[in-house]
Amino acid sequence: MSGATDFPAWSAAALDRVEGALDRLVPADAPAQLGEAMRYGVLEGGKRVRALLVLAAAEAVRGQEAAALRAACAVELIHAYSLIHDDMPCMDNDVLRRGKPTVHVRYGEALAMLAGDAMQGLAFEVLTPDTAEVPAALQARLCALLARAAGHAGMAGGQAIDLASVGRALGEAELRHMHRCKTGALLHGSVMMGAACGAADSAALAALSDYGWAIGLAFQVVDDILDVTQASETLGKTAGKDAQDNKPTYVSLMGLEAARRHAGELHEQARAALVRSGLADTRWLDALASRIVNREH
To answer: Does the model's pTM come out above 0.85?
Structure first.
């Protein structure tokens, strides 16, 4: 899997495409500051890991570029809406996100709720253009993958488990299930949406699915580690919030060093899955796995 040295150039170009598309797709003229709040919540911030996973997986299967870019934007809209809602006082009650005040702090709780609602709807609108650039069957497949990743069996379900687990001592299997839903499902869905934009046999799709689940869980394990090892200024969000809120994490369950080892094990599982896929060029997916596990914010 060569090409790691080219990854900064590839990711910079991919991010430019995603930012440009989001800027065009997220309306500024929605009524009563709604568009302003939506744009504040999704533009100019974030690592765009999910969007990059979509585009990298699509390249690995030689997928349709237009469909992959729309899928990348849709995933980012769903992710941003979830952050807006998660940060609200009724859930995590956080005041800092991506290095700036959270949407409800900036615009108030009611408009923040509506901005998240509107962004969720916009994500599916983005996936179903009136033009012929994305075939109808692919539109339906992308919508199904995103809905499943974001809904009761994925992100929303995981957040419900998270809220119900405050103050409880979860076992490793329970914690893994919570994080697989809350964080892993949308990262896994990003990989599979990218894969849906091209052609791959069942063995390659199964391997990409394994990669997505491994890297999705690794992302959350590293998040748990960073929450106790980095400052708020580095993270762009409030550090130490999980411990403060008495939430179960991989660090609280395993300890810091064991959590770090587990992240490394998941990284190796993800890389092995890429080899098993048999796809000719998975270098960007491989580089993204390394970025996810070795990141410092």
So the answer is: yes
